[in-house]
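dumping this here so i dont lose it
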């Protein structure tokens, strides 16, 4: 067994360990918000409405989630898959960034090098997305009068029916 394949197996173990831990932390953070609202402000959780909403979304997204995982994971690699599913917007942002980065690198798609480049591309795409969202939050007050103008109002009325 070559020395670099041993190092890569250690790398894989570290990626999966970190990915699993970060996924658990993410799930705990999602649960912590309603729990904190209940404990701090006494806002009760409507269990019936929550279950009804969960069942509706789960029934639609369950199969899609499985198919997405099996179709994206070979392209993104392990680290890129953990990052992409944590940060979201895979099809529009993360997958194109990973595919184009691996294509420009010249490495074979199935290689460990391509997997690392894919993970870096997904991470950079996530950081750029966060920076754009942060800039949007900072400057929304400057463009809000334009967005609320009567000329643009019909576009936003049809944006989310």
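and the seq i came up w/
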């Amino acid at each position: 067994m070559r020395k670099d394949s041993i190092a890569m197996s250690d790398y894989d173990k570290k990626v999966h360990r970190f990915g699993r831990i970060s996924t658990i932390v993410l799930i705990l953070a999602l649960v912590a918000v309603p729990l904190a609202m209940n404990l701090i402000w006494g806002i009760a959780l409507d269990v019936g409405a929550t279950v009804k909403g969960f069942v509706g979304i789960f029934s639609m997204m369950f199969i899609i989630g499985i198919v997405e995982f099996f179709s994206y994971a070979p392209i993104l690699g392990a680290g890129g898959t953990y990052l992409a599913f944590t940060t979201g917007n895979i099809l529009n942002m993360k997958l194109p960034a990973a595919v184009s980065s691996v294509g420009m690198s010249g490495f074979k798609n199935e290689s460990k090098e391509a997997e690392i480049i894919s993970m870096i591309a997904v991470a950079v795409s996530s950081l750029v997305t966060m920076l754009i969202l942060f800039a949007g939050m900072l400057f929304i007050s400057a463009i809000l009068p334009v967005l609320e103008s009567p000329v643009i109002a019909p576009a936003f009325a049809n944006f989310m029916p």
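Residues 47-87 form the longest helix (41 residues).
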